[in-house]
């Protein structure tokens, strides 16, 4: 499915490719066939992908892959999917997955909307994670924020009933935006008793990005929702 000029979707990201190291380039060439998934086919068969039936966790925008790697190492009985559009981060994670000989991770280098629309079977994920998405702080860019009602529709379709959606940001206005959007969405129930924020879930790795923000005095806001 290709967007026409009159239907072109506003994307929530800009490709800032940056410089790829030789090791990242090598990892992409060598290990993508083992861990990479295409976003242009039909719905995936999880038995063919992982060779088993297990709880499935999808992280959208995994950056350098620290969180995906830590969770996959800590929970070998679960399967992990990661989406990232920036190839240096994809190459870095591929090298780490191969170094640890992990078999419970697969990666998309694609737009999350395309992945959710095209290849994730309905109601097949146990958890979706979205940590520190671009806050697009300027008002004229708010339409680019990934957490909108339409995107929540896609996540709801992918999650099993009772599945969780975990989010985090260090940008207070975006935290309030996410809370407002998801508290109003009919398919999601806020897991905070007061309808607000929750403590950092134990499965979320404290990344270098987050540690740097905390040192700068940034407050981190976690949200957790259950698929009704």
Describe the structure.
By secondary structure, the chain is α/β, with parallel strands linked by helices. Helices cover 34% and strands 19% of the residues. The protein has an eight-stranded mixed sheet, sandwiched between helices. Strand 5, helix 6 and strand 6 form a beta-alpha-beta unit. Helix 1 crosses helix 4. It is globular and about 45 Å long. The two termini are 30 Å apart. The N terminus is likely disordered.
What is the tally of helical segments?
A: 8
Question: Mean of residue pLDDT?
Answer: 91
Oligomer: single chain
The percent of residues in helical segments reads 25-40%
Distance between the termini: 30 Å
* Residue share in β-strands: 15-25%
Question: What is the β-strand count?
Answer: 8
Question: From the alpha-carbon coordinates, what is the Rg to the nearest angstrom?
Answer: 17 Å
Shape: globular
Which residues sit in consecutive blocks of at least 5 with pLDDT less than 50? 1-7
Structure class: alpha/beta
**Main beta sheet:** 8 strands, mixed
In order across it, which strands form the biggest sheet?
A: 1-4-3-2-5-6-8-7
> Order of SSEs, N→C?
HEHEHEHEHEHEHEHE
Keywords, please?
228 residues; alpha/beta; 8 helices; 8 strands; 34% helix; 19% strand
């Amino acid at each position: 499915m290709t967007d026409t000029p009159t239907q072109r979707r506003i994307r929530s990201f800009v490709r800032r490719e940056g410089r790829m190291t030789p090791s990242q380039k090598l990892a992409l060439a060598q290990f993508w066939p083992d861990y990479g998934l295409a976003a242009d086919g039909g719905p995936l068969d999880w038995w063919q992908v992982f060779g088993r039936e297990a709880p499935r966790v999808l992280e959208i925008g995994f950056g350098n892959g620290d969180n995906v790697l830590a969770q996959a190492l800590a929970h070998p009985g679960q399967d992990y999917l990661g989406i990232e559009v920036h190839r240096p981060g994809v190459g870095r994670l591929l090298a780490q997955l191969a170094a640890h000989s992990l078999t419970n991770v697969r990666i998309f280098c694609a737009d999350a909307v395309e992945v959710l629309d095209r290849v994730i079977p309905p109601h097949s994920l146990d958890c979706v994670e979205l940590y520190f998405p671009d806050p697009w702080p300027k008002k004229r860019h708010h339409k680019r924020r990934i957490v909108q009602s339409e995107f929540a529709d896609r996540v709801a379709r992918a999650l099993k009933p009772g599945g969780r959606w975990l989010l985090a940001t260090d940008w207070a206005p975006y935290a309030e935006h996410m809370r407002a959007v998801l508290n109003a969405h009919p398919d999601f129930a806020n897991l905070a008793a007061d309808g607000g924020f929750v403590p950092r879930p134990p499965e979320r790795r404290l990344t270098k990005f987050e540690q740097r923000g905390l040192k700068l005095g940034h407050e981190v806001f976690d949200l957790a929702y259950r698929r009704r």
